[in-house]
Write a structure and sequence with these properties.
Blueprint: H1 24-34, E1 38-44, E2 51-56, H2 67-77, E3 88-91, H3 95-104, E4 108-115, E5 120-127, E6 131-138, H4 142-146, H5 154-157
Parallel strand pairs: 3-6
Antiparallel strand pairs: 1-2, 4-5, 5-6
Domain VOC: 11-138
InterPro entries: Glyas_Bleomycin-R_OHBP_Dase, Glyas_Fos-R_dOase_dom, VOC_core
Pfam family, one: Glyoxalase
């Protein structure tokens, strides 16, 4: 088998986060029908009760933060430490509207949409399947943000 690569993705083609949900139907309904992730595939083992639904979440990244960064993000977005080691973040076009839809569908609001120093509007929720999630709406383009003091990429800092 030939490894697929591109200049944008490198050797990884897809990131898939697998979440076990005790209330499978509720979780699928919440993430697919309310949050709006598109169903890509679904499988059910005949007679065994095993089910999986794969929801397409668009472009994926893996964000790795040190403990100080995690604490700082919690302080900005929530006002106190709250994040477990894993938090799932979804970019949405309208953080206020989508946050309200998720709360109406049963998510617990941890923090309302808050403008961050990195120019996004972020909310925090505890959602089905035990996920702590962030909804974020970018208020500036990546190009605009990288021109701000303190922003950029690690590659930018090491290119001198």
């Amino acid at each position: 088998m030939t490894e697929q690569t591109s200049s944008e993705t490198g050797p990884i083609v897809q990131l898939r986060l697998v979440v076990e949900a005790d209330d499978y139907e509720q979780a699928v309904q919440f993430y697919r029908d309310v949050l709006g992730l598109k169903e890509q595939e679904a499988f059910e083992a005949e007679g065994e009760g095993a089910k999986v639904t794969i929801l397409h979440a668009g472009y994926a990244t893996l964000e790795i933060a040190n403990p100080a960064q995690r604490r700082m993000i919690d302080e900005v977005e929530v006002g106190h430490p709250t994040t477990p080691r894993l938090r799932v973040a979804f970019e949405v076009p309208d953080a206020e509207e989508r946050t309200q839809k998720l709360v109406d569908a049963g998510a617990s609001l941890v923090a309302p949409p808050t403008e961050t120093p990195w120019q996004s509007l972020n909310s925090r929720l505890d959602a089905p399947a035990g996920l702590h999630i962030t909804l974020f709406q970018e208020l500036m383009t990546l190009e605009e943000r990288t021109k701000l003091e303190g922003f950029g990429t690690d590659a930018d800092r090491h290119s001198d």
